[in-house]
Each structure stands twice: as structure tokens, then as C-alpha cells.
């Protein structure tokens, strides 16, 4: 695992990534560049002075010129706003402190509009680097919704106002939306927040043959399409904790929750003794919500959702699944590895659903 993460820090994308991106649909996701934009606000500690700092990092997974070639990984950061190979971009980002707040941004709205404008300029510069290759942008809705007004469910499909907002809303609808012909093919919105994403509890497999009985299963790692009330379907990628999949069967949480935990039983008869279930670990599935916004067709959005799920399943940095696809994880990891990153709470095990939220 440490060796794989070292490869990630060097920006090495081997054939695993090429195999993961290749799909069976008619939409050529393997001929697109895939950009991940990570945004975070680091609040000041108790006793510190000054405004909170906004950190923006981005990566671009660029396809090779020939089908047999290797994918390349570019990096960008708000402290060094130049696209360069990922390893160089990460080193340049880590060699400088987090950017100080702009003196021109006096309000909350101006601060986040300034960050969104910075991303617009970064995508405009990337278009020159890609030299005609179309691209997509992936963002985490929890951190990015305050920068782009078109990400929340209530704004999906809403046309932007000519004035750009009412003062409280962002002037930017989606990443790259103001670039005209250079705008991304689609924006892929990810949500891993357990309070907002439905939790899978079981899976029913319907037989393909007539008269086949449905089969109930406790867990699944598949991608499911879910119909919504706003027209565009959303996809849920089910995740099973790594500890649940480990050696040994009968993990607690597969049949019942802690509300139904059995009490301990003490008896002189050894066969009747039983440990209490309440203090033991319970495991449950989690889900990653994937919503492609835009795109030329329903087939394209389905292909982009499947590609995003495969890039969560096939990671650069370890042998298991992650909650974020490769471009967004690589951008996020640039920030997490920075010397000034707050390390009071870090991810315990990526992809398990047991992670703690990083302290802002």
C-alpha cells in the first residue's frame, strides 16, 4: 500500500487506469481528460488571528495520443496556478504555505466567488494544455456547493440569471460554464456524506429467467441507477467496509443494528455463555452518489457514471476501493499531505465508510 501511494505521489498512472476507464458504451470516455477539483476551508485555531484560508487543488488525468500509450497526470494548486506534471505540482504546492485570504474579498460571498473565478482561469489554462481534447470536471458537492450555484438539487436544470445572482448566491453556476466552447463536456457531482446519501441495507437480485425466485443478499459493491423527481437519474455506488470483507464470516451489522444488539449472558454452563454485542464493532454498507450534470445524451451520462465508479474501484494508492475517483482523490491528497494541513483528524481507512471527517 505504501509503495502504491508512492506511485501516486509521483503521478504514475499504469495500465490499471487505462483498463478501468475503457468502457463498453458508445460514448468515448477513454478519449476525454478527467479533471478533479478539491476545495477546502481551513479555519483558524483558537487564539489565531486572520480570516480562514481557502485551499484549491486540481488534477487532470489526460489520455494518451495512441491507444497503447500511458495516461498522464497533471497537477495545479492555488499557490502555484500553473499546470505541470503531478509530482512537480505537488512539490511546488508543498514548498509554500497556504495562501492568505485576499484583501479585496470583504464578504463571504466575494471570498468564494473569488475561489470559483480562480478555478475558471485554471480550466481555461488547461484547455490550452489539452490542445483540443475535451474534458470533464469532478467535484465533491459538500465543499463545492458554496462556490457553484448549480450543484444543489434545488438548482439542477435552472437557467442562470442574467445578473448572475441576488447577492447571496454564487455568480458561477458550474465549473467552467463561462468558458463557452471550452466548457467541460459534463460536471460530475459526488456526494459521500452519510447524512445526505441513502444507506444501502440489502440487495435483491431478480432472476433473468421467467419464474426465477428473487435472491436476497446482505451486501453489494455494484452501481445502481436511481430515478429522481428532478428528471436526471442519479447513480449510487455501494461500498462494503474492508473489515467486513476480511477473513471470518458473520460480521455484526449484516442482519441487525445496535438497537437489536444482544446482551451478554453469564452462566456456569460454558455452552450458554455469550459476549455482549453492544461493545463490538458493527459494520454497514455506505454509498457514493454520482450525478453527471450536462453531457450530450443520456447514454453519455450513464457512461460517465460508470467510468467514475470504476475510477473509485480501481485506485492509484492502494489495493481496495476509495470513496473518490482517481482525479479527485489525487487533488485531495495534495492538500492532505501539505505540511500545514490540520492533522487532528485524518481518514482512518479510505473507502471503508468509517473515515472521520478531516478537520477544517
Automatic annotation (TrEMBL):
Taxonomic path: Bacteria, Bacillati, Actinomycetota, Actinomycetes, Kitasatosporales
Species of provenance: Streptomyces kasugaensis
Residues annotated as domain pPIWI-RE RNaseH: 34-340
Region (Disordered): 153-175, 247-280, 337-360
Protein name: DUF3893 domain-containing protein
Basic and acidic residues: compositionally biased ranges: 257-271, 337-346
Superkingdom of this protein's organism: Bacteria
Pfam family of the protein (one): RNaseH_pPIWI_RE
Amino acid at each position: 500500500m505504501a509503495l502504491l501511494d508512492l506511485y501516486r505521489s509521483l503521478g504514475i498512472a499504469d495500465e490499471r487506469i487505462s483498463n478501468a476507464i475503457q468502457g463498453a458504451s458508445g460514448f468515448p470516455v477513454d478519449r476525454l481528460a478527467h479533471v478533479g477539483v478539491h476545495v477546502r476551508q481551513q479555519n483558524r485555531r483558537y487564539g489565531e488571528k486572520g480570516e480562514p484560508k481557502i485551499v484549491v487543488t486540481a488534477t487532470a488525468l489526460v489520455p494518451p495520443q495512441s491507444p497503447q500509450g500511458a495516461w498522464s497526470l497533471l497537477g495545479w494548486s492555488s499557490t502555484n496556478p500553473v499546470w505541470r506534471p503531478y509530482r512537480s505540482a505537488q512539490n511546488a504546492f508543498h514548498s509554500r504555505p497556504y495562501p492568505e485570504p485576499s484583501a479585496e474579498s470583504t464578504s463571504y460571498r466575494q471570498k468564494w466567488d473569488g475561489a470559483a473565478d480562480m478555478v475558471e482561469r485554471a480550466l481555461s489554462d488547461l484547455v490550452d494544455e489539452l490542445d483540443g481534447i475535451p474534458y470533464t470536471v469532478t467535484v465533491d458537492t459538500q465543499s463545492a456547493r458554496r462556490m457553484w450555484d448549480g450543484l444543489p438539487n434545488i438548482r439542477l436544470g435552472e437557467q442562470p440569471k442574467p445578473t448572475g445572482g441576488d447577492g447571496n448566491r454564487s455568480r458561477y453556476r458550474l465549473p467552467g460554464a463561462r468558458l463557452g466552447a471550452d466548457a467541460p463536456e459534463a460536471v460530475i457531482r459526488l456526494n459521500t456524506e452519510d447524512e445526505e446519501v441513502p444507506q444501502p441495507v440489502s440487495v435483491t437480485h431478480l432472476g433473468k429467467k421467467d419464474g426465477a425466485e428473487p435472491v436476497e443478499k446482505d451486501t453489494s459493491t455494484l452501481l445502481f441507477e436511481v430515478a429522481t423527481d428532478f428528471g436526471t437519474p442519479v447513480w449510487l455506488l455501494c461500498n462494503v467496509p474492508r473489515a467486513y470483507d476480511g477473513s471470518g464470516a458473520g460480521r455484526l451489522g449484516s442482519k441487525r443494528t445496535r438497537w437489536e444488539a444482544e446482551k451478554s449472558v453469564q452462566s456456569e454452563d460454558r455452552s450458554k455463555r455469550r459476549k455482549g454485542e453492544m461493545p463490538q464493532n458493527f459494520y454497514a454498507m455506505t454509498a457514493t452518489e454520482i450525478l453527471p450534470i450536462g453531457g450530450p445524451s443520456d447514454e453519455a451520462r450513464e457512461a460517465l457514471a460508470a467510468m467514475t465508479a470504476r475510477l473509485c474501484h480501481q485506485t492509484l494508492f492502494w489495493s481496495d476501493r476509495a470513496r473518490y475517483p482517481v482525479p479527485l482523490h489525487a487533488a485531495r491528497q495534495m492538500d492532505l499531505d501539505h505540511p500545514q494541513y490540520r492533522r487532528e483528524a485524518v481518514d482512518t481507512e479510505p473507502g471503508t465508510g468509517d473515515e472521520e471527517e478531516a478537520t477544517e
